[in-house]
Amino acid sequence: xxxxxxxxxxxxxxxxxxxxxxIITGTIVPGxxxxxLMLGGVMLSYHHxxxxxxxxxxxxxxxxxxxxxxxLLKSKTWKKVALNSSIDSKVNEISEIFTVGDEGVTLxxxxxxxxxxxxxxxxxxxxxxxxxxxxxxxxxxxxxSNKVVVTRKIEI
Length: 156
Hints:
Layout: H1 2-23, H2 29-74, H3 77-81, E1 103-106, E2 113-118, E3 121-127, E4 137-144, E5 147-152
Parallel strand pairs: 3-5
Antiparallel strand pairs: 1-2, 1-4, 2-3, 4-5
Helix pairs in contact: 1-2
């Protein structure tokens, strides 16, 4: 009866560990429970059958875990499940829509980032130096990749 209990604990532990590695990664709980069950099975083997059988059980368990992991990683089944596509699109360039010198109005407080309205489009912008309150007129002074830098419009 103890042999069935020990084998069941180790088998269920290995199943949970493999689920953690390959199916539901990042949750940690099945992996911890799987390791605990495997250790429990090995400890029961030491307790009921002595050191020699316990050592063989430990060695067989470790060997089975490594071989199973190796076989699962090398199988072509995972290639069917894995994401193989890559993203080849790009973000719209802000410089295509806005130019340096365009004027707009702040919609939210720029502290230092916030929303502005330029050419009837709402975008996120960064204040050059100080904070800008809502409903203040601003001018685009720089466009750095996808960041718009603005400053307060100076009345002359």
